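Before relying on records like the one below, remember that each one covers exactly one chain. Contacts with other chains, cofactors or solvent are not represented anywhere in the record.
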Amino acid sequence: MDYYALEQSYETLMQTLLSRREMLEKLVDDFRKNQLSEPAGYLRVSRKGCYFQYYWRESLSESWKYLPREKLGKARELAAGEYRDAIVEAAERELAEIKRLLVRVRPMSLNEVFASMRPGRRALVEPLVTPDEEIMREFYDNSYPPLDLYENRQFQTTQGEYVRSKAEWMIAEILQSSGVPYQYEAPLTLRNGNTFRPDFRCLNLRKRKVIYWEHLGMMGDTEYAASVIRKMQIYEENGYFIGDNLIVTEECSLCPLKPETVVNRVQKFLM
């Protein structure tokens, strides 16, 4: 059995419940505000042959007023108000069930069960799901000879390595501040034995997935852009696809890389 998939389904369920609760609370709040502007009164509908007839009664009145065709706008407003009231009622029922589930019937987490064991017993047990700390240790246990440390490297990151451009420095800083484990220019061995040096080797800890990041910094240069096309072909030939296990950012002198672009890539593929 895939225990990690089971643990992921737990996290997905919890995130879905919390997200659903937040959306329902916003919906109820928005509709409650709209109730202040809704027309007061009640709507009655009767059928006459193939047609419907509509009647309106004010909140403090006991008599019903017939709404002719030219006053159907009032009927539509009352029906819309009833519809919104029904939605609020259904949303509040669901909110109560979600809150009850989160408090009383909390789903099981394999990691939480393992962490709750006393240290002496925990030391004797092999967890069904590898802890995050072990995954990170394995990720960083990938020693490799660095390229010439100072060759074309002018920018030092918070993590201590020197990178080649301001854009690479920005990517490294955002990865570090986002808590994403990464290595700079770690070698990637291709199927034919050749080696690439992608700019960053990153770890999506939640998915237990290694993702490479290439920044293409001179896309305004025709020769450079042509070499990039061949490089992307080689990546695909070796099982690395943009949007899956490969992130690509690009820039040229007229269109520099923006921090929000990096943040969006990190949040979409690495968190």
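The first helix runs from residue 3 to 35.
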